[in-house]
Amino acid sequence: MATVSLPPLRVGLIGCGGIAGNHLAGYRLVEEADLVACCDIAPEKAREFAARAGISDACSDYREFLARGDIDMVDICAIDEVHAEIAVAALKAGKHALIEKPFAMSVAEGEEIISAARESGCRAMCAQSLRWHPRWRAIKQAIDSGRIGTPVYARYSGPSSPFWRPEQIDAYRDRPPEWLLIHNGMHSFDLMTWLLGSLPVRVHARSHPGQEWLPVHEYVSCVTRFASGAIAHTEENRIMPPPRYPLGNEIYLVGTAGTIDATDRLTHFGDITAADGYSLLAPGSSYALTDPDMPFACEIREFARAVLADEEVPIPLETSLGVLKAVLAGAESLRTGEAVSIDA
Ligand SMILES: NC(=O)c1ccc[n+]([C@@H]2O[C@H](COP(=O)([O-])OP(=O)(O)OC[C@H]3O[C@@H](n4cnc5c(N)ncnc54)[C@H](O)[C@@H]3O)[C@@H](O)[C@H]2O)c1
Questions:
Q1: Among 165-179, 247-261, 288-302, which is the least confidently predicted range?
Q2: Closest by CA position to 126, among listed 329, 315, 324
């Protein structure tokens, strides 16, 4: 990528909840983008975040950003359901948009974002922080270097944190039963798409409906076929864990010339073994928010660099649309019990 020496992008962040804190840590480490303003529909959250970020500019209606000439980019960290509406409005107003996952909730919304980006000439990207995680980067590099040959099978388990706090359960209220798959599946399906180097074409999903008081399915298992012919088995898992249940992610990936077997459950390392005996201990899952290469800093930096250099963003919207289609196909499969093919 070309080196740029342009002034940093001036960023307005929208949605000052949990993940906005990680983005804030990212902006502190990135030279290419300055956080200058923030917005939350809850004014006290916007004010509190602005104080934490050391900025004086806080509002409760994102439309205020869009009319301003001193904001180049919006960073959309609000709840899933408003991502597309805000992204389309921002792009039409000539602002670049980094959009938290899921960047849209339907194929029509995703296509509208793509059209708005094309028509405005602005850049937009679905933020998929796992792609910049040191552990997944190491695994991706091993695959790209050809050490395991062509990947043909992946098993991924994402037992993300259970509902420790009441507000985490609140996030799942008033949402459809398959929301866990749409919300968290964007991570696992994007990861599989990236590691296998191919888009999903068919999904078959099954779920565990969850506790009586829990409005969403707490466990979803998907078998997905990719255009390359590779198969992935992915799990979204928020099952109430018994005491000492080991949390963490697991991946087992088979290629034509080797395997990757990685878990961060207890050991925090992984093994990549190829026919030539090559082996790599992949980094564990933890990182410091002050590390210049922490995922959110890398994600913001690489997006901002692409915008400043007028180059394609690291994750094209079309790829994220393919991932979204797979997640939605999974949701349909949960409803019908049948495997669902994805339109190209
Ligand atoms: N990349 C990751 O690893 C990761 C991790 C967690 C969350 N996320 C994504 O980030 C987004 C936010 O998640 P969170 O955990 O921070 O949620 P959160 O509920 O803590 O924060 C969301 C905030 O958006 C605000 N909001 C809602 N509607 C708004 C609107 N119209 N305009 C302005 N603000 C509005 C809410 O008041 C709230 O403060 C979600 O889409 C989620 O999928 C990504």
A1: 165-179
A2: 315
What 8-state DSSP symbol labels residue 317? H
In ligand 1, the atom with minimum distance to the C-alpha of 82 is 31
Which tokens hold the place of 191?
Answer: 């990861």
Atom of ligand 1 nearest to the CA of 21: 16
Token output for 100: 């938290």
Cα 45 to averaged position of ligand 1 atoms, centre (Å): 12
Q: Is the pLDDT of residue 191 over 90?
A: yes
- Pocket lining: 79 vs ligand 1, CB cutoff 6 Å: yes
Domains detected in the chain: 9-128+296-312 (3.40.50.720), 134-286+324-341 (3.30.360.10)
Tens of pLDDT, residues 201-212: 999 999 987 777
- Cα torsion at 314, 315, 318, 319 (round to 10°)? 130
Q: Is residue 89 lining ligand 1, measured as CB closer than 6 Å?
A: no
Confidence of residue 158 (pLDDT cuts 50, 70, 90): confident
CB of 21 closer than 6 A to ligand 1? Answer: no
Pair 274, 147: CB distance under 8 Å? yes
